[in-house]
Amino acid sequence: MKKFALSLLMGLALTLATPITDAKAIRIKELATFEGVRVNQITGYGLVVGLNGTGDKDQTGFTRQSLSNLLKRMDLTIAPSALKVKNVAAVMVTADLPPFVKPGTKIDILVSSIGDATSLQGGTLLVTSLKGLDDQVYAMAQGPLSVGGFAITGQAATVQKNHPTVGRIVQGATVEREVPIRWQGKESLSVKLGQPDFTTAARVAEAINESLPGASAKPLDASTIELSIPQNFRENLAVLVAELENLSVEPDYVGKVIIDERTGTVVVGENVKLSTVAVAHGTLSVQIREGVQVSQPGPFSDGETVANPTTEINVEEGADNLLLIERSTNINDVVKALNAIGVTPRDLIMIFQAIKAAGALHGELEII
Description:
By secondary structure, the protein is an alpha+beta fold. It is built from seven helices and 23 strands.
């Protein structure tokens, strides 16, 4: 069972790494992004109405003030202290603004309570302006919420599923302003790797130079490749980027062993190597049994009942032999060598740390 569990875990890591080895290459589209092509975050403050008594409490002053201001814009002047807001909740609305999105495009939004509302289920978001860090309005949001949970409260018990104070509105915001991106007419373009690596950067530059006549690409560092745009593409950069995205490159990765001590999960990367090392992993089992031995006096005697505590301790230590793990050159050899020890993934945490300390683990050991 132990070997099967370890094989399954290591097999998963091998499966995840297999496409790199078998396919030999991955598109630049999956490895990198292009300068200026990025998502921008926008945020707004709004009110959700129509709640069934699950909104903010009357002590939430900003909700009452916001509702009073809203009614004032509708020619209704009511003091905040005179308002009840149990059917209203103050919320923050957030969204990601994709690059090149045009006015009129619909985007998804996330609505989160910032007061003491217990649920947003059944609520409707009133029109809310979404701004960027430059304080410009980029989208307007409104619509009924979809909440993937519920909360039912009684006098003595509460039943809750998921997070009812967070909701989502699919295509709930309309883009009003385009994020300006200087795109056409550029003389150079930067390609940014998602995982910085000098070898991968050099391979990307080589693939670009070989595939695009007239292009001149060079790696500036581990994450940036600078490309001089050929003259015939400077007014039609979208075509050039489309060709770059579909170029295939074999990326290079650092061999890593990832250990999650909270869950006992161990994942071994494809490039991890082991030098020859001897490992002995023993187990220590300690059992303690506490009891009481009672001595009763004879009948019609003047004796007293005596209770004597008893303790029984058994110690067993495993007699595992010293196991020689031969030098491994690929992930299959690592799996076979570790399976030979016959330990659980939790035991592997200590074994990997000891092997790394001995200098026999060639790769990064990361504990999360």
